[in-house]
């Protein structure tokens, strides 16, 4: 099978999780990462819940946890809040990570399992024999080499080159891309026991988030649907206007600024080919409503790693063999992703007045578990006219 059984391109949560589970089950695995440090720079709000960690055998260390919160606070355009406990709030609320340490923790798991890791090593292209991928061309410290393997894993994020080189369709419409900007603001006053989400025209087609890092520091950012922007610089203008509108944030100053894009699309048709597999952001496994991807990346990475270990034992990295991964991650995630994409398509059309009514209704009726279906049923009980557009989801 050449130099390695598996070469993973990208050392984010999806890549290191895939490498960990593949190596742990007997595969020879190499991770290559173009950056000089795992986890930095951070391009993430850094919020997760505890609920899924056991399913992928992750034990957080103290360095990985920046802050623990009680739950989430949803804020309507008119300022009305709705509070959710951590158990109700979903996969992005409960713990605010320090991704610099969290990503290194996942990398240590992979290395402990037997995977190799090379930093400052960029993928340049795929090596093929006929229609089959048999390795990757890479450059490290000015030297170019060919690394042969049974399967190349594209864990190279939103801008995935591996998927494009492999001919896997991952292109996105403007309405399925959210453009994001985030400050880490310090010297602020905030309700630091809750992650906060602001809805409506404050962030067209998206939302504003505040994830506390400590009592006076938070990740404050927003995402705007790309199709709503005339110029990329508008995202910063939206965020600056929001910060200026909040008395507790006006005196804040940024410790860092990060920007990027997030896919908020329906599940793509294919994530594998002969000798190639996509996982995480590169496979568009992001929640279309929240834009969160850490939990999905770790879950899909486990399925990918176990599939690849099995393919290694069988000596078969064909599309047919890798369909175990295709079917496995879809069984875990696809229904939820597709339902949330359908809901997202409707949510981006709602007016501020409608969001106000939704939050008002949730305060009156409440929900036991935060999900698209639970919210729609709660609103339907008081304002059936508001959910006519969502009937197919009920």
Taking Cα atoms only, what radius of gyration do you get, to the nearest Å?
21 Å
* Text of the CATH class of the largest domain: Alpha Beta
Shape: globular
The CATH topology label of the largest domain is FAD/NAD(P)-binding domain
Uncertain stretches of 5 or more adjacent residues: none
CATH hierarchy: architecture of the largest domain: 3-Layer(bba) Sandwich
Largest sheet: 8 strands, mixed
Mean pLDDT: 93
Number of domains: 3
Give an account of the 3D structure:
The structure is a single chain. Helix content is 31%, strand content 28%. The chain is an alpha/beta fold. It folds into 3 domains: 4-46 and 99-172 and 267-344, FAD/NAD(P)-binding domain; 65-96 and 173-263, D-Amino Acid Oxidase, Chain A, domain 2, CATH 3.30.9.10; 350-393, no CATH class. The strands form 3 sheets. Strands 1, 2, 8, 9, 10, 11, 17 and 18 form an 8-stranded mixed sheet that branches. It has a 7-stranded mixed sheet with strand order 6-5-13-14-15-12-16. A hairpin with a 2-residue loop joins strand 14 and strand 15 (217-225). The mean pLDDT is 93.
Compact summary:
By secondary structure, the chain is of the alpha/beta class.
